[in-house]
Specification:
Layout: H1 25-38, E1 42-47, E2 53-55, E3 58-59, H2 66-72, E4 80-83, E5 92-96, H3 101-107, H4 116-120, E6 124-127, H5 131-139, E7 144-146, H6 153-170, E8 180-181, H7 187-192, H8 196-219, H9 226-239, E9 244-245, E10 250-253, E11 274-279, E12 281-283, E13 286-287, E14 290-295, H10 302-321, H11 329-345, H12 353-358, E15 399-402, E16 405-407, E17 423-425, E18 428-432, E19 437-439, H13 448-454
Parallel strand pairs: 1-7, 5-6, 7-8
Antiparallel strand pairs: 1-4, 2-3, 4-5, 9-12, 10-11, 11-14, 12-13, 15-18, 16-17, 18-19
Helix pairs in contact: 5-6, 8-9, 10-11
This protein binds glycine and manganese (II) ion (2 copies).
Length: 459
């Protein structure tokens, strides 16, 4: 293993400063837009996820809730924002933790109530522990509440209780809310279309993620443990400004690649096998999501190469279709067509191709979708089809993945022995542009010859 860091790591070290907490115009503009969208008689309550226990009295590292962060830049737990469009005094109410000198010595600084206006643009700051008490009063006169039910049971109980109370106390005096609405229409449609500064963040996440994969290819050798390869990749992520991976990295050598959500990462890489790596860096809370599959010893055997080339062709053909107006589902139809045709040609599926597609026979080896929205969440928010549509058309500013794969799980019956245990997925992050697309993760190769050039260079 080389003692020198990869070239990419020599760049000036970026810090995670993009769109952090503040009264930033960006967050204020997002709040204003959301208030416009929900209308003057509604309210929106966006809450922070609770901290989660990891072991005895220690917690997982806290990561802010995506919706709350998107609208405020605020990163603390025990927080909630209430938007009251058109309110004369406080359209933006923030519930947060009060300052506490002793606790701040242990856990770090808090913004606190007194600084919430200056630092976060709140019109009114209240203690988070008073949320249940204050909410019914604040909801009086509102006709509906936008709130994401089902993510945090304790919070749901609190919110539904406050909602009922608002209805009871409004009787005869004020209008009461009559609906709790999911944020999917108002807020998540906003998040689905990336603004110019978000596109910059997505580019950054894509390039840092790509640099991690390049490093991974360079250090790969037989005998390396999957977790060692993971560590090398995630090391580059952090060196280049990521706070964490955007999801648990998948590093699967040999047939581990056929376990779609394999995160155990505890086996040794064997000569002659492929390794599948699905890992993405989260930089400034926007994540990349890349999969590459490469040969541990630097050379594909003929069967591996055949499957690799088929997946690559499917992925490239789908990418070539991307442009505004293309219905989302056509990307999946494209990868299914190419992969099914290829598998029939190889004798791995019975033809004809149309029948294998109609009967979904391809799902035996290609059992997942072709992609998903990407952004602050790896499986980002936003609906895939609106009323009456088979799927929605792509729009400029959308980001998503294209990630076909073929997997011959060792327990799958009827797989010719030369293919058993081969698992290949190729995944890139795509931005829809005015006339096509930009591949945000082009910094890591996927052409076999280019990959083979890199394998083991720093092993
Ligand atoms: N890494 C998660 C996914 O590709 O969906
Ligand atoms: Mn993905
Ligand atoms: Mn992935």
């Amino acid at each position: 293993m080389s003692a020198t860091p990869p070239e990419s790591a020599m760049e000036a070290r970026p810090t995670e400063t993009f769109l952090r907490e503040g009264t930033g115009d960006v967050h204020a503009a997002r709040r204003a837009r959301l208030m416009d969208r929900i209308g003057p008689t509604s309210a929106a309550l966006i809450v922070a996820y609770p901290e989660r226990n990891r072991s005895n009295d220690t917690n997982y590292t806290y990561r802010p809730s995506s919706d709350l962060w998107y609208l405020t830049g605020f990163e603390e737990p025990e927080a909630a924002m209430l938007l009251l469009p058109g309110h004369d005094e406080h359209p933006f109410v923030l519930f947060l933790r009060p300052r506490d000198h002793k606790l701040e010595i242990w856990d770090g600084p808090r913004v606190g109530l007194d600084r919430a206006r200056e630092r976060l643009g709140a019109d009114c700051a209240l203690a988070f522990e008073d949320l249940a008490k204050e909410l019914p009063r604040l909801l009086a006169g509102r006709t509906s509440l936008h709130y994401a039910l089902g993510l945090d049971g304790a919070m749901d109980t609190l919110v539904v209780g406050a909602y009922r109370k608002a209805i009871r106390t409004a009787r005869g005096r004020a209008r009461a809310p009559t609906a709790i609405l999911d944020p999917v229409d108002a807020l998540h449609e906003m998040r689905l279309i990336k603004s110019p500064e978000e596109i910059e963040a997505m580019r950054r996440a894509g390039s840092v993620s790509a640099a991690g994969h390049v490093r991974g290819m360079r250090v790969t050798r037989p005998g390396l443990m999957e977790f060692e390869l993971q560590a090398e990749i995630e090391h580059v992520f952090k060196q280049q400004g990521a706070r964490a991976p955007g999801y648990s990295s998948i590093v699967g050598g040999g047939s581990n690649a056929c376990v779609l959500h394999y995160i155990d990462n505890r086996a040794a890489l064997a000569a002659g096998d492929l390794v599948l790596v699905d890992a993405g860096a989260e930089v400034g809370y926007y994540t990349g999501d890349i999969t590459r599959t490469w040969p541990v010893s630097g050379e594909f055997n003929g069967f591996q190469r055949t499957i690799y080339d088929l997946v690559l062709r499917a992925q490239m053909e789908a990418i070539s279709l991307v442009r505004p107006g293309l219905p989302w589902h056509e990307l999946h139809e494209c990868t299914v067509q190419v992969i099914t045709q290829g598998l029939v040609d190889l004798g791995l599926l019975d033809g004809p191709v149309e029948k294998a597609i109609e009967e979904a026979a391809f799902k035996k080896y290609f059992m997942h979708g072709t992609g998903h929205w990407l952004g602050i969440d790896v499986h980002d928010v936003g609906i895939y089809a609106r009323d009456g549509e088979k799927s929605r058309p792509l729009e400029e500013g959308m980001c998503f993945t294209i990630e076909p794969g073929i997997y011959f799980h060792p327990e799958e019956e009827g797989v010719p022995k030369d293919f058993v245990g081969i698992g290949v997925r190729i995944e890139d992050d795509i931005l829809v542009t005015a006339d096509g697309c930009e591949v945000l993760t082009r910094g890591v190769p996927k052409e076999p010859e280019e990959i083979m050039e890199l394998i083991g260079k720093d092993a």
